[in-house]
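Researcher: I'd like a candidate sequence for this fold, 323 residues long. If you have to choose between options at a position, lean toward the conservative one.
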């Protein structure tokens, strides 16, 4: 089996093998730009990982793995337009570096290209993989709409938030693992277990992202400390704080989350409230619960333990990170 590092190298070489067209420059240059911004390319790695767990043909899985990364970056490009985001991975976003119309069209092209990458799959594998991919794409759009809806709501339940991040983040992780398994002709029952591993791991990953935004030990390059608080994003920290707060504390939280400004006092006040309400402790426990559920599901997959090693290692890397 290939190690995580070796799979990363295969993915990076594959992007060079399947270079996109160059003309018209105005269409393809923004695509090259976002693909070269330095993302970790975790999702295509996970496709290959799911494939090799079932002794699949890794070469057959490479283009579908690239499909996932093209699709993921298409969503980022359009998300940045909707959020009016100035930075992506510490660099100027596509719609600012070029223009909004170019970013929309380039994103559309990446979506189309992602489906083109599936075309070489054998007929018997293409249909279930394509159905899974389409289902996931729709769920991502639904998750994004829920996220937009929640911006105007005062009260968001825990279940509502989990539903939203399942759509925005977790279903794509599950899709990647299951896609790799399907390409390896894994039994449907085992492929579905792997999908559920991805769902739980994806939820834990997003919860950890929310946690690190405020409680991380270091700040990512190009990412502002407590950026979610600045932007009034109602993450799991906000949801948990609202559940635990007294009426006076709820009013204070809502007061700060109604201010749209880079206010240092706001960050200090909200962080202080989060710590007082032990939000950091509650979210750490929640992350552990979802990670343990993912690991329990890995145990249930009917393959030799040595074939599960790198998935367990990746799970630890994603969830134990401090930045």
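Model: Candidate sequence:
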């Amino acid at each position: 089996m290939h190690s995580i590092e070796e799979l990363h190298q295969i993915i990076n070489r594959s992007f060079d093998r399947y270079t996109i067209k160059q003309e018209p420059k105005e269409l393809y240059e923004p695509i090259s730009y976002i693909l070269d911004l330095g993302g970790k390319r975790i999702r295509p790695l996970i496709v290959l990982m799911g494939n090799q767990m079932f002794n699949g043909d890794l070469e057959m899985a490479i283009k579908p793995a690239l499909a996932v990364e093209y699709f993921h970056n298409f969503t980022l490009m359009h998300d940045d337009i909707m959020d009016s985001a100035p930075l992506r991975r510490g660099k100027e976003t596509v719609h600012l570096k070029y223009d909004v119309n170019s970013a929309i069209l380039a994103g559309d092209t990446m979506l189309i290209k992602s489906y083109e990458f599936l075309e070489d799959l054998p007929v018997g594998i293409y249909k279930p993989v394509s159905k899974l991919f389409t289902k996931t794409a729709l769920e991502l759009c639904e998750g994004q709409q829920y996220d937009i809806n929640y911006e105007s709501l005062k009260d968001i339940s825990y279940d509502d938030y989990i539903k939203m991040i399942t759509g925005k983040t977790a279903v794509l992780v599950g899709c990647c693992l299951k896609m790799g398994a399907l390409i390896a002709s894994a039994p449907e029952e085992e492929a579905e277990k792997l999908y559920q591993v991805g769902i739980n791991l994806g939820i834990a990953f997003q919860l950890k992202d929310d946690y690190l935004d405020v409680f991380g030990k270091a700040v990512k390059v190009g990412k502002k400390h407590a950026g979610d608080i600045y932007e009034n994003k109602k993450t799991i920290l906000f949801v948990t704080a609202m559940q635990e707060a007294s009426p006076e504390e709820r009013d204070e939280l809502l007061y700060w989350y109604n201010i749209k400004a880079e206010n240092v006092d706001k960050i200090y006040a909200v962080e202080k409230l989060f710590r007082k309400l032990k939000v950091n402790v509650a979210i750490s426990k929640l992350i552990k619960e979802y990670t343990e559920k993912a690991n329990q599901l890995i145990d249930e997959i009917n393959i030799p333990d040595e074939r599960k090693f790198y998935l367990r290692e990746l799970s630890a890397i994603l969830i134990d990170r401090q930045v």
